Amino acid sequence: MTExxxxxxxxxxxxxxxxxxxRMLWHNNNNASxxxxxxxxxARGVVAGVADFTLVTDGGVVFIExxxxxxxxxxxxxxxxxxxxxxxxxxxxxxxxxxxxxxxxKLYGSN
Length: 111
Description:
CATH topology: Trna Endonuclease, Chain: A, domain 1
CATH architecture: 3-Layer(aba) Sandwich
Helix content: 40-55%
Structural class: alpha+beta
Strand order of the largest sheet: 1-2-3-4
CATH class: Alpha Beta
Distance between the termini: 25 Å
Strand content: 15-25%
Largest sheet: 4 strands, mixed
Number of strands: 4
Oligomer: single chain
Number of helices: 4
């Protein structure tokens, strides 16, 4: 499974499992398909290191970074994590679909 496939599976599960929470989870598109697209994205405010997902919960804003097993954060991602934690947001790194489901259920207080 690729990271993109993992993102799709997680998002679609959340969309279907929690219909009342639709639009409270979204993907931050910070990967460009070309240098030109990357330049356009940068001009629009897309920045490197931002977590893959942003989730708004009753408890505040949560950032979720998806990684495949064995992958590590890039320095920009580590920097983003430190900054959002200092501002009181929550940040999680998830390595599988099952971890994502467990995290969401924990955040929503359900099993």
